[in-house]
Amino acid sequence: MRRFQIITLALVALVFEGCTCCAYLNHMFNAERIYDEAAEMRQARLDSVPDAEHSMPGADERLKYDKVIEKGSRVLERFPENKKRTAEAVFMIGESYRHKQEWGKAITKYDEFERYFSDNDSMTTVEYQRAYCLYKNGEYNISRFALEPVVARKDHPYYFQGLNLLSLLDEKADFPEQAIASLEAVLADTSGTPFMRAKAHFRLAGLYYKMEEWTKSREHYTADEISMLNVRERQTAGEQAAECLIKNKDFLKAADEYKELYKNEEYAPARSQYLVRIGEATMMAEKYADAIVILQKVNTEYPRTEYSSRSYYALGDYEQNKKLNYEQAIVYYDSSFMARSISEWGQESRSRRDALKRLIAMRNKNDTLRTKDSIPNLSGFFSSEFQIAELFLFKLDEVDSAITRLSAIIEESKDSVQVLKATYAKAFILDEFMHDPDGAEEIYKEIIEKYPDTEYGKQAQANLGMRVTLKTREDLAKERYLAAESLWTIATETPLDQMEQVDSAYAQAAAAFDSLYQEYPETQSGVQALYMKGIYFQMNPEMKDSAITVFRFIRDKYKSTPWGIECARILNNRLTIEDKDIERLRKRVKNSEEHIDKLSAQYYENLSKKPEEKKVEVKSKEEEILENTYNSMYDFE
User: C-alpha distances in angstroms, 635 versus 507, 622, 625, 631, 632?
Assistant: First the structure.
């Protein structure tokens, strides 16, 4: 009997152990099956979108990863002592969070995996994926630290991926040279896979392109391994390789490469873009007749699109800058705007069209005046010339034409202010637009020498990197005002029991303010000083009339300044009534009289009527019942 009980207990224990094992196998089997299904969906998504790296998982895919996380969490809860099983569960949960792009949660699980299962075979994968998640989470410094064991040895299974990630981190840290070095290490190692070499070429080409090293960029964009990349990356490489040729001014070869892209059936959706670029490159190569034919083909085959708008813009630019036929350029710019008004090219075309119309009107007017023996309004004439130069520079991108107009103003105008303004503008254009610092420096020094007491002289010093030592009349007036203001402050702080010193201090301050205005009447500080003189007069009863005279003068002569406005407020201390106010008052009186007459008539009408007998109000029984139910101190019975 005893033996039978022992055997029974053993069998029961064995059954329960088997059930536990079955529960684990059930959870992990389902988790792995769902994870594989999610992986298939993920791969299909990555294959179907151009920018796979930035694509987000769909709702169904995320749901499957959520189920994997749920199954893995049950394994951790029910089998915490089984190291092998919990390691598999933690790893799968971390991977699920990574695929869901929940980087912070994935990092937490990877940290947990290293803490408890650092000797597991999946640890090498965790090292790289944790660094990648840190990078995606914006924690670049920590990511670089986490990446060290990956790139420390070449036998690491993620060594080349680690070098690529390291280059991304260097790029984020604005160290393009270090990023290039990391990618060059991938290409130098012959053990790297062809696909990884292709990715390295693609990344290197992009980095060199940003650094404007067009030749090196093109070498990597045209590398043989590029053919292993997906369609979108191959297409980008072909486009950028042609753009590198344009940057190096090899326009015809670039046009030929765009023609090859145009013929490729894989890139058929971008044919309109390629056709425009072929026309633009041909135009840059000064093959104008061929370029016009190609651009007109765009307008015919792709009407009312962004690319036809861009094509018309290129034709307008040709008529404007090469043939100087502004009327025809306006026609093309109008066509560009009509083709696609909301596009970048349509908006720019509208801006250029308006600028050209203004330019033609002002130029015709000034050219007519030039043919006369004398110009009646020289100031207006040269002001128009300066506006024409501004249009050429800022609206029409014709720098040479702007320089020509400014030079004419400098040579012909007798107005020193206009000459100074045109001279500074010419130096600025040479420096910022034509990249001629030597020519600009010569003109800036001339401005400093000839016009030392102007804002242009001060700005010329600043543009040359010199310490600004020049002072304008406004600056000098400001310094004098601060000195006079300090005298006024001394007067206000002097004790009243020393009245003679107080009066003397105020008199000195008033004299300083008066002297400042007499010397710098056109400056803001000068006007403010005159206002303070009026305040001084106002403080003395015997000088009230003088204060009113000063305030009236400031109000009339400097009415647009803050002190002119304040003086107008001080002087306007009497109530003024206008005709509309009197009319409004009369209307109100008339309405009141009419209302009083109406009430009076109603009163006398009521008096003439006989008074009606008042009827006794009989309350209903229901009302009596309501009153009797009231909780009162009286007895209504």
Answer: 93, 18, 13, 10, 8
